[in-house]
Amino acid sequence: MAPCMALWDEKEIFPVETMRKAAQLGFGGIYTQPDVGGAGLSRLDTSIIFEALSTGCVSTTAYMSIHNMCVWMIDTFGNEEQRHKYCPLLCSMEKFASYCLTEPGSGSDAASLLTSAKRDGNYYVLNGSKAFISGGGDTDIYVVMCRTGGSGARGISCLVVEKGTPGLSFGKKEKKVGWNSQPTRAVIFEDCAVPVTNRLGEEGHGFNIAMKGLNGGRINIASCSLGAAHASVLLACDHLCVRKQFGEPLSSNQYLQFKLADMATSLVTARLIVRHAAQALQDGTGNAATLCAMAKLFATDKCFKVCNQSLQMHGGYGYLKDYAVQQFVRDIRVHQILEGTNEVMRMIVARSLLQE
């Protein structure tokens, strides 16, 4: 992915064939069960894989992490028919998935979502729209949170909607600061009839399904930040050794040495909390959700600072698109916003502490 990273960003290419090659290595369903085509690996394995892949292209890896989350949700909460219908095609990345929770009027306050799904015989009729959907319009399967009951979290259910369903359409392709190798569009439902058999779990369980998916999603996106920071530290080291100022390489400047040491320390510290949270999620420990929030908060904040400091060390060169460091900065900035903003992560951690 690394040799193509800049091209995919500039031309806004969704690298389908490259991702399908990754799927041949098991990366289309990393923590999905093997009986439906998944690799059956742990959350810890997944974190390591996404960090490594992100050193090549953050944007593409981040989409793959969302795809993996969707496959896991179908594998975990779907019945046997649903699992065997959707997961093999998704694990091979013959088909791609998108996660549809955020709406124009409900981001962090996900429980207030308005997209409605009214039961009509053997179908739900969907009306509403989803915003900022990664892969929207280019993907095949949409895991949609919608309101089948009253207000609040208990009125939300989860439906699998297939591309081509009458009443399903998409907004314009968004122009973004980063994450340009994956398309982002609004997903729109206008009297979109979806079979009741496409519901994951029971009615009213959708919010719980969404949140459990996001616990893993937070680990995944934090891992993508680790990869960007890791690559940026290496880029900084190379630049400091090559670039000369005042007759000496920048690497001889003690201030920059100390900055580099701080960057590496932040990276390793962030990596440890992410790996710890991944293991807790795998083990099902009681505080796993809080640890996932802590890891996402800490790693995405610290890794952005590492990438930004690396850009600063590059001086004017860091601001040129010929140098990869600026793309790492652009691509991971959004990690502090999506999968729950870092402000919401702080709310989750504080609420957990105050309830103890």
UniProtKB/TrEMBL annotation:
It comes from the Eukaryota. GO terms for molecular function: flavin adenine dinucleotide binding; short-chain 2-methyl fatty acyl-CoA dehydrogenase activity. The active site is at E339. Its cofactor is FAD. InterPro entries: Acyl-CoA_DH_CS, Acyl-CoA_Oxase/DH_mid-dom, Acyl-CoA_Oxase/DH_mid-dom_sf, AcylCo_DH-like_C, AcylCo_DH/oxidase_C, AcylCoA_DH/ox_N, AcylCoA_DH/ox_N_sf, AcylCoA_DH/oxidase_NM_dom_sf. Its EC number is 1.3.8.5. Isobutyryl-CoA dehydrogenase which catalyzes the conversion of 2-methylpropanoyl-CoA to (2E)-2-methylpropenoyl-CoA in the valine catabolic pathway. To a lesser extent, also able to catalyze the oxidation of (2S)-2-methylbutanoyl-CoA. This is Isobutyryl-CoA dehydrogenase, mitochondrial. GO terms for cellular component: mitochondrion.
